[in-house]
Amino acid sequence: MARVRDKPLSDMGFRGMSFFFTIRDAIRPRKNLLTEVGIEKGHHVLDFGCGPGGYTMVASEMIGPGGKVYALDIHPLAIEKVRSRALNKGLKNIETILSDQKTFLDDESVDVVLLYDVFHMLGDPEGVLKEIHRVMKPNGILSMNDHHMKDGELVTRMEGIGFFKLERIGEHTYTFSRVVRDD
Q1: Is residue 159 part of a domain?
Q2: Domain count, the chain
Q3: What is the pLDDT along the chain (183 residues), one digit of tens a residue?
Q4: With contact defined as beta carbons under 8 Å apart, do 78 and 50 qualify?
Q5: What is the CATH number of the domain that holds 48?
Q6: Would you say residue 80 lies in a domain?
Q7: 164-169 β-sheet, strand order
Q8: Full residue range of the structural domain in which residue 72 is found
């Protein structure tokens, strides 16, 4: 997960979260959520705060071999888990990034950004959104949800920073588009 007051979860905390997500994903498959996002074959997807990779694995299968999923997390165990899962599944279109915020990706190189259950924990939400804005293509999609925040709070905070505007509210996700800025 991204930062919790500028620090990653403890190893034990990450393992507990990972176990919980394994159960969650078995009960409510991540594909059900990702189908409303608009991910297409060949897309480049950034899973920001990827955790153990539940969304990463599904996105990888959705985009096919011509696309790329960048799985970013601050926690080394998350990166290790995603690499292991990708290797076990034979998925070659996943690249991991160990970072709290900087993606090291080219400007306007990502079609879809997934920001799920992370926003409430970010130590520098404006910095993260600035980085996401930088790497997202002009017609890209930022798909979010965060069950720790009220609906109105999520939209207000997102639009208040000025990098994104709400396009639609789906059954499971909020879709934001990139705001053109001069800075």
Answers
A1: yes
A2: 1
A3: 333 345 677 788 777 777 767 777 677 767 888 999 999 999 999 999 999 999 999 999 999 999 999 999 999 999 999 999 999 999 999 999 999 999 999 999 999 999 998 998 888 999 999 999 999 999 999 999 988 887 788 899 999 999 999 999 999 899 999 998 776
A4: yes
A5: 3.40.50.150
A6: yes
A7: 94-98, 68-73, 44-48, 110-116, 136-145, 174-178, 164-169
A8: 11-178
